[in-house]
């Protein structure tokens, strides 16, 4: 836990639990005051927010553990499992909302004390909006998939709250009480799409997807610029897991190059890569010149 970035990540994840509990209490109060099906659905999704915030915190703490005998590459992928779980829970919440919306649509009813309920729900939505911005921006900076996924989950909740407020306000204004469950159902469909996107993004990490093209091009340029004394680098492979970026490639040097000289070239490349990607894990396989493929990264 001595890593400052990891310490910050854990603190933010813990903050999500506190914010989630406050928002859940506010939305539950709003539903209790009004009896609105849409507000009940909004509160149901907030229970998932709390559960996923706890899951994210547990995953981040596991990911912070150093590599060990059984996990020589570290525990970084734990965050992806958490993000997949969040995606599943978002989808489950959307299905629950659709269920409540269907029942409400079959038997619409006039709402009690709609104005206080709406004001409380708006307050909860604003709090969620502010916190989801913190999660997404800080999660990207800290390269934490769990925080980013939690932020997108909260963003879906903000959209839900906006739709719910609109539906309840229109129902009160027009007296068309079926609008309450109808808007809840429409927003639930949007949440389903959000949950799928969170899952798809996380599954790419679990499948060892390569780094984005712009980062790959940066890696190639650094190798080309810093590998003076080598001939080429080929079979470059990358993958990402949480904050860690794994890079491995073959570096071809002239046959008479000494071990010490080859090691010096490798150290120079590693230092330059880590300066750009501090969490990079780099493996370089040195080969003699007859192994050259005349492809990949040519050394400038």
Automatic annotation (TrEMBL):
Q: Which Pfam families match?
A: Cation_efflux, ZT_dimer
Q: Where in the cell is it found?
A: Cell membrane
Could you tell me which SUPFAM superfamilies the record lists for this protein? Answer: Cation efflux protein cytoplasmic domain-like, Cation efflux protein transmembrane domain-like
Q: Which residues form the Cation efflux protein cytoplasmic domain?
A: 212-289
Q: What is its main location?
A: membrane
Cite the Cation efflux protein transmembrane domain residue spans from the record: 16-207
Q: Which BP terms in the Gene Ontology apply to this protein?
A: intracellular zinc ion homeostasis
Q: Name one GO cellular component term.
A: plasma membrane
So which domain of life are we looking at?
Bacteria
- The reply to whether NADP figures as a keyword in the UniProt entry is no
Q: What PANTHER family does this protein's entry cite? A: MITOCHONDRIAL METAL TRANSPORTER 1-RELATED
This chain belongs to which protein, by name?
Answer: Protein p34
Q: Which organism is it from?
A: Paracoccus caeni
Q: What is the lineage of its organism?
A: Bacteria, Pseudomonadati, Pseudomonadota, Alphaproteobacteria, Rhodobacterales
């Amino acid at each position: 836990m001595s890593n400052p970035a990891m310490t910050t990540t854990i603190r933010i994840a813990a903050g999500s639990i506190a914010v989630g509990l406050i928002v859940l209490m506010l939305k539950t109060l709003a539903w209790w005051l009004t009896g609105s099906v849409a507000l009940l659905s909004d509160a149901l999704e907030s229970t998932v927010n709390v559960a996923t915030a706890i899951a994210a915190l547990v995953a981040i703490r596991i990911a912070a553990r150093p590599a060990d005998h059984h996990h020589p590459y570290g525990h970084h992928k734990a965050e992806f499992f958490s993000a997949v779980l969040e995606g599943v829970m978002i989808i489950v919440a959307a299905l629950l909302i659709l269920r409540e919306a269907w029942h409400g649509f079959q038997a619409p009813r006039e709402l009690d004390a709609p104005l206080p309920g709406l004001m409380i729900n708006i307050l909860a939505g604003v709090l969620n909006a502010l916190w989801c911005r913190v999660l997404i921006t800080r999660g990207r900076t800290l390269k934490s998939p769990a925080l980013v996924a939690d932020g997108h989950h909260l963003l879906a909740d903000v959209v839900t709250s906006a739709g719910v407020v609109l539906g309840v306000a229109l129902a009160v204004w027009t007296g068309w009480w079926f609008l309450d469950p109808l808007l809840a159902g429409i927003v639930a469909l949007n949440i389903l799409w959000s949950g799928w996107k969170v899952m798809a993004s996380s599954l790419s990490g679990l499948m060892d997807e390569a780094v984005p093209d712009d980062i790959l091009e940066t890696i190639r340029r650094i190798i080309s610029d810093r590998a003076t004394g080598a001939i080429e680098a080929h079979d470059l492979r990358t993958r990402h897991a949480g904050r860690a970026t794994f890079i491995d490639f073959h570096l071809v040097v002239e046959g008479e190059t000494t071990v010490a000289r080859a090691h010096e070239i490798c150290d120079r490349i590693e230092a330059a890569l880590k300066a750009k990607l501090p969490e990079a894990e780099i493996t370089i396989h040195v080969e003699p010149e007859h192994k050259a493929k005349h492809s990949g990264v040519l050394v400038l």
